Structure prediction request, 257 residues.
Amino acid sequence: MSQAADNQPFEQKAVRYEALVDWPRRLAFEEPFYRRLFEQVGVQSVLDAACGTGRHAAMFHSWGLRVEGADVSPAMITHCREHYGESETLRWIERSFEQPAEPPGAFDAVICVGNSLALAPDLETAKRAVGALLSALRTGGVCVIQVLNLWRLREGETTWTKCKRVRIEGSDRILLKGIHRVGPTAFVDFLDLTLLDDDVAARFDAATVLGFEPADLLAAAENAGGAEPQLYGTFEFEPYDREHSPDLILVCQHAPK
Prediction:
């Protein structure tokens, strides 16, 4: 077996990321959640912060909404433009989630999901990002932030969350994803195996993610003008449970002081 750290070009990583997620199933599961929230607030425009490969943004645009997808990675933005195009109602922009959108107050809804906020290097950066997200909302607009609930993971043990065999560009590959928690931090590990005639080529990649207590998100939102906060543990509006919920989802509205 040959081994290497994952220095593949972005497009290869994007292909792997797309393959690991059953996007039709995921979006069908989450769609009622967003439709309900957006109808309650009368959403016509959405900012998808840390949009990644653009799946959520593209879904919202298909509903007839004006959408901006923002990501710190230039390659991610290039990927989104190539796959979904741009128009007067769909825009892709290179911007980190802690950088405020311009002009402020331009959106009816802002989302930061896919555990993106947990990729912040520290809690203070994450708090600034929450402030930036809320500043992009009009008064009464809705903000949705989703991170993994790390506290349900037993400390030190690796939980393997994905194992898929896929065919990419003529090669059979096995993709694995695992996560293990050490205190308030977790490490997400990726293993990408390319099956050769008489060998296996292995690539490894990893990411560090923060664990958030509900109080962390609530305080950051309140300091930035967040109002009427609600905490959920799933995209089915189930109440957050620290011991069992897969997610920690904050929903709040913007009420500038």
Observations:
- The two ends are 60 Å apart (CA to CA).
- The chain has two domains: 10-151+211-254, 152-209.
- The chain is about 30% helix and 40% strand.
- Residues 10-151+211-254 form a domain with the Rossmann fold fold (CATH 3.40.50.150).
